[in-house]
Amino acid sequence: MSETSQGGGKWGDLAPRVLSGIGMAVGGLALVWLGGPWFAALAAIAGGIMIWELAAMTDRARPSEALVLGLAAALILAVILFTRNPFLVPLLAVPSLFGIARPGRPLRLPFAIYAAMIMATSYGLVAFREGYGLLWLLWLILVVVVTDIAGYFAGRILGGPKFWPRFSPKKTWSGIVAGWLAAAAIGAVFLRYSSAGIDLLWISALLAFASQLGDIGESAIKRMSGVKDSSNLIPGHGGLMDRFDGLLGAALFMLLVAQLTDVPSVRF
Fold it and tell me: Is 226 left (phi over 0), alpha (psi -120 to 50) or beta?
């Protein structure tokens, strides 16, 4: 998410961000903790909502089509996650293929790429939870959360040069680096509870950077679409995509890392 907002003063959006953030954190973490069908249902619903938001903001002339596409995405995710049939996984590409094939759809390629990210992440986080356990998923979520929090406060307090003004004009280098340091601190804490080596520190920082790139990617799509937020579902946060854009980038990075290297076991 961006480090600053329009109107209301420097800290004008802090109270609604905190309150809605607490509500989402309590509900979301409860379902993550429960795992199984509860987390699968959360992933399917969240993925469908984000596909709806993406379709609606990239083609505002067809809101009904966006709603149908979001419902279809949620249904596809639910069928794949609950049947556990690997032969159905290619269906994750359906929203992207629809966006590319739809005549007259604006921003077809950005839509297709980001829709693929949403679907892959929604499926992949459930698979990651089942394959590597709860605590590694909590590490992933904590890295994304502290990266966002550190960037928010460092960007507002320290300010300074912009990181990538063409795509995310409000994100500063101070916020970016603060996110890396905060993520590395989470990695240092997690070293105590896993058999991971010291590499976890820089992997956590890279995970933070992937999270920030996910944020910037969504910001670029919003700028191309001419909108400030992906929707107005969440007070202080805009839409679900505005809240989980960082998680998309981080999750895809971690899923790639998990394919290339062994994920250490967790110990107590």
Answer: left
Q: Are 176 and 232 in contact (CB under 8 A)?
A: no
d(CA 149, CA 43): 23
pTM (2 d.p.): 0.84
The mean pLDDT value for 64-84 works out to 96
Other CB atoms within 10 Å distance of the CB of residue 244: 28
For the chain, the domains span 14-260
Contacts of 131 (CB under 8 A, 6+ apart): 258
Q: What sign does the CA torsion over 29, 34, 36, 40 have?
A: negative
C-alpha span between 201 and 199 (Å, rounded): 5
**73 neighbors 119 (Cβ within 8 angstroms):** yes
Residue 168 pairs in a beta bridge with 164
The pLDDT tens digits of the residues spanning 136-156 come to 888 888 898 889 888 888 888
d(CA 170, CA 138): 28
